[in-house]
Amino acid sequence: MKRILTLAAALLLAVPALAHELKVGDLEFIHPNIPQPAASAKAAGGFMAISNTGTEADRLIGVEADFAAKAETHESKVDENGIGTMEHVDAIEIPPGETVNLEHGGYHIMFMGLTGTLTEGEMRKVTLVFEHAGRVEIEFMIDPPMGKGMEGMDHSKMDGMMEEGTGN
Ligand SMILES: [Cu+2]
User: Fold this and answer.
1) Which of 48, 84, 125, 135 is most buried (most C-beta within 10 Å)?
2) How remote is the CA of residue 111 from the centroid of ligand 1, in Å?
3) Other beta carbons less than 10 A from residue 137's beta carbon
């Protein structure tokens, strides 16, 4: 038993091996994915489900990816005119005992300023930063293109943020 505990402690301290499906502490990550963006796209959405099996809330407070100039947590909304927009949110809360779906039309990760192409079937490393769980390195799978959807969204706000974000 002691040996198992020691091993578990070592695993917690070590940089975890990259994995697609992952459980870190109380958080479980289910199919992190990025639908393949159009070749000309400057941004791509990231999706997954995050389960919190613990008794305390955690919050996704940051995202880092080497294939994008900037990655943010976003929330999509539909205004009274039926126009879809998205805005930056400081954090995505993962309540205890719940599963939060990052999905089209809701919370998602936005990778902005793509530095190369993302091709279906590839795995790309992303670091998710949580308030309590800390830094979680995980592989996002590039899924088939979503078709309409993200491309149909109003990206005007996002472009504004991109401009603010350049040069930093
Ligand atoms: Cu977005």
Assistant:
1) 48
2) 8
3) 16
Distance of CA 73 to the CA centre of its chain: 7
pLDDT in tens, 137-162: 999 999 999 755 444 454 444 544 44
97 alpha carbon – ligand 1 mean position (Å): 26
Residues with CB under 5 A from ligand 1 (ion): 74, 86, 110
Q: Which residue has the tokens 């790309």?
A: 124
Ligand 1 centre and the CA of 159: distance in Å? Answer: 10
Task: Enter the pTM of the model.
Answer: 0.77
- Residue written as token pair 């039926």: 82
- How remote is the CA of residue 109 from the centroid of ligand 1, in Å? 6
CA of 86 to the centre of ligand 1 (A): 5
Pick from 115, 133, 166, 149: nearest CA to 47: 149
Return d(Cα 35, Cα 27) in angstroms, integer: 23
Residues 73 and 92: beta-carbon distance below 8 Å: yes
Domain ranges of the chain: 16-165
